[in-house]
């Protein structure tokens, strides 16, 4: 019963989708990603976005650094929503304010239309994924493996009933990443539920320390871990999220 458009309205249209205030959650997430990619360390040929949902913003800074991007989701309704935007079809969700904001903070003078064109060109496939399976993309995956980098935003904690399940899911997706490769992980802090239309979904509540411990257990060196406290004006009744985390982690060689 997950409704992609309701989820997008709740989280990526105003007030949460208002990018005019630099203190907002949208600018914070985009800034974390842009600054990390600007280091030049997170680059390569292949990138997999784990549990894309119906959103593309998490790849706007990534697409400059990777030529082959795979987007994934468990739900076909979300994969359909992604294809609408990737094909630039009428009725697709409008991400232009996000594209404009990313171009602004990256400061390269790139037109936002070119940013979107590049992302569309570099997403090569949209695949089914199940992070609870030891082979999340299934046997004989169409994605080139192992990937040079993984991105995942609001997926693992939102599909895991408890911390042990989150840890296993993290272990599973880590098998898709080459040793020395990078994972950029964004997720909710201290959230237990969220709405997407008629669907009310359960989330495992996590704190910063639990995120850090899970990454270390899965064989990562944590390069950066930032948190954002959700202000009262953005607590809109569509979830009980208290904050957001951003983690940059590098898979240790030999793991």
Automatic annotation (TrEMBL):
Q: Which GO terms describe its cellular component?
A: cytosol
**Residues noted as binding S-adenosyl-L-methionine in the record, renumbered to the chain:** 7, 12, 51-52, 57, 73, 78, 130-131
Entries under InterPro entries matching the protein: NNMT/PNMT/TEMT_CS, NNMT_TEMT_trans, SAM-dependent_MTases_sf
- Catalyses which reaction(s): (R)-noradrenaline + S-adenosyl-L-methionine = (R)-adrenaline + S-adenosyl-L-homocysteine + H(+); phenylethanolamine + S-adenosyl-L-methionine = N-methylphenylethanolamine + S-adenosyl-L-homocysteine + H(+); (R)-normetanephrine + S-adenosyl-L-methionine = (R)-metanephrine + S-adenosyl-L-homocysteine + H(+); (R)-octopamine + S-adenosyl-L-methionine = (R)-synephrine + S-adenosyl-L-homocysteine + H(+)
Cross-referenced PANTHER family, in alphabetical order?
NNMT/PNMT/TEMT FAMILY MEMBER, PHENYLETHANOLAMINE N-METHYLTRANSFERASE
Organism of provenance: Crocuta crocuta
GO BP, sorted A to Z: catecholamine biosynthetic process; methylation
Q: Which family does it belong to?
A: Belongs to the class I-like SAM-binding methyltransferase superfamily. NNMT/PNMT/TEMT family.
User: Is Metal-binding one of the keywords?
Assistant: no
Q: What class of enzyme is it?
A: transferase
**Pathway listed for it?**
Catecholamine biosynthesis; (R)-adrenaline biosynthesis; (R)-adrenaline from (R)-noradrenaline: step 1/1
Recorded E.C. number(s)? 2.1.1.28
Q: Which domain of life is it from?
A: Eukaryota
- According to UniProt, the name of this protein is Phenylethanolamine N-methyltransferase
Which controlled-vocabulary keywords does the entry list? Acetylation, Catecholamine biosynthesis, Methyltransferase, S-adenosyl-L-methionine, Transferase
Family matches, as Pfam families: NNMT_PNMT_TEMT (PF01234)
Q: Kindly indicate whether the keyword tRNA processing belongs to this entry.
A: no
Recall the GO molecular function terms of this protein's record: phenylethanolamine N-methyltransferase activity
